[in-house]
Amino acid sequence: MKKQKVAKKKGTMSRLLAYIVKDHKIMFSIVLFCILVSSLTSVVSTIFIQVVIDNYIEPMLSTGANLFPELLQTILLMVVIFAVGILSTYTYNFLMVIISEDVLRDIRNKMFSKMQRLPIRYFDTHTHGDIMSHYTNDTDSLESMISQSIPQIISSIVTVITVFCTMFYFSIYLTLVVITFLIIILLVTKKLGKKSSRYFIAQQQIVGSTTGFIQEMINGQKVIKVFNHEEETIDNFNTLNEELCYNANKANKYANIFMPIMSNITNLQYVFLAIIGGLLLITNTPNLTILGLGTISIGIIVSFLQLGRAFTQPISQVSQQVNSIIVALAGATRIFNLIDEPQETDRGVVTLVNVTKNSEGKLIEIQEKTGHYAWKDPRRKKDEQLIPVRGDVRFFDVDFGYTDEKIVLHNISLYAKPGQKIAFVGATGAGKTTITNLINRFYDIANGKIRYDGININRIKKDDLRRSIGMVLQDTNLFTGTVKENIRYGNLDATDEQVFAAAKLANADDFIQRLPQGYDTLLESDGANLSQGQRQLLSIARAAVANAPVMILDEATSSIDTHTEKLVQDGMDALMKGRTVFVIAHRLSTVQNSNVIMVLEQGRIIEKGTHDDLINQKGKYYELYTGKFELE
Fold this sequence. Notes:
Radius of gyration: 36 Å
Oligomer: single chain
Helix content: 55-70%
Number of strands: 18
Shape: elongated
Structural class: alpha+beta
């Protein structure tokens, strides 16, 4: 199990590096060059200290020689080198900010694009707040890692390598002292890092859960207040918040004690280097270097004190960045899990095309929008490829379950002839909405067949299938934009005249004209400035402008007052003319004129027939209609 986790983190890191390196080759190459220059200038400046002390200051103090001109030239050279280092540091930090924002833009685009292609099942099993957390908390942690942690790590690696080589050049004895303290630092880092990483990962996960809970509570504020659940909600939030606080405290406790410990270890190293270097100098012990034996000098000791800090400081900084990297990798794993989610599979080949009739009365495909459609099946002979869209929908022994273990629809067989109105009634959970969700393939069936105009719907491309089906749901969803734009959402190519006609058909034109800017009135927050009935009328207008041959009305009048219900019902009656319609309703008065009423119970059709037929049968529908049994 542990090996699998490690492999997964490596995979996540390699994917991140692909975003950074592969898509920004030139810019990242410049970053690497600038980091190299910046790191080398810091090492060169330390070497200059040894040169200044041993070649200028010490001779001037011991012999009184006038070496100020040469010393001034050396100092000016150091100033130039420092300036180059500062410019390089600024450049790579500036470029890494650009790279990080570009990477996050690409990742957000991929996440959002994938989200549009995910099956409805994914959104049924993940809270909206948790999904939103991918775009906020997870991307924020990635931004910090890419813009700060990665350049810091690269810079530290280059610095450690160059400093280590320089220390060996100066003195192997003193280098061994630094290596000893390095081992101590690594042991401490491993100990603290292991403890903190577990809590940082848990913190990142609970942040997503907390965000999801908060969003859910914001959306349900009215329900919370109506049922006086404020205290229970506060208690539930406190439980999540306490868990978040616990993990954050634990994670940050180990992270915060890390730097003081590292600082004290570095100070001890400084003291030991000074003592051992002083002893080597006083005792005139031959100084072992990679070039052989030499002599220790004050300049070497002073430089080594700086080199010791320059060697351990990057290691401490990298260790400090470990927690940020762990959090970022946890966020990246969540992001890539979303990106890697299996999207809707679509093996359909049959498409929906615009058609007209030629002089011989035969269907021909054209590019212009005609309002007349046909299915195009490329597997048929050329002169038989076009099949008129009539709205003939049939179920044959269909079984379906949201999971393989639990089947919720059993042996569903039904037919809806073109222009017929089919109604589904039954208690909540009987399977009414599930059946309509199968028609537009929000979910795929387990067994059986569904045919649309004689074509197995699995052979129809999902986009084309759904373009042929309009929906009016109980829960209306309006988007930020004008009234006109919200109606046109049903058909983005619709003209203003078609939008106005759809609104009139839905009986929405009257109230729209009374809005401050009419059809140009801006709607926000899911149409919060409109009543429920007005929003439903816009939803009907949106379905009308789509002009689909099949219509699904899912309890479209259940949340509307009696007066508005009459308007909505009239709008729906106009909308249903000439179309195949599937209606789900709790109010049986709205389905009495249906061609067929189907009564569902526990995923089975137990009765079917016209209103009069079912009344005469005196079964479940009769009980519902007469009030002997109420829908739940």
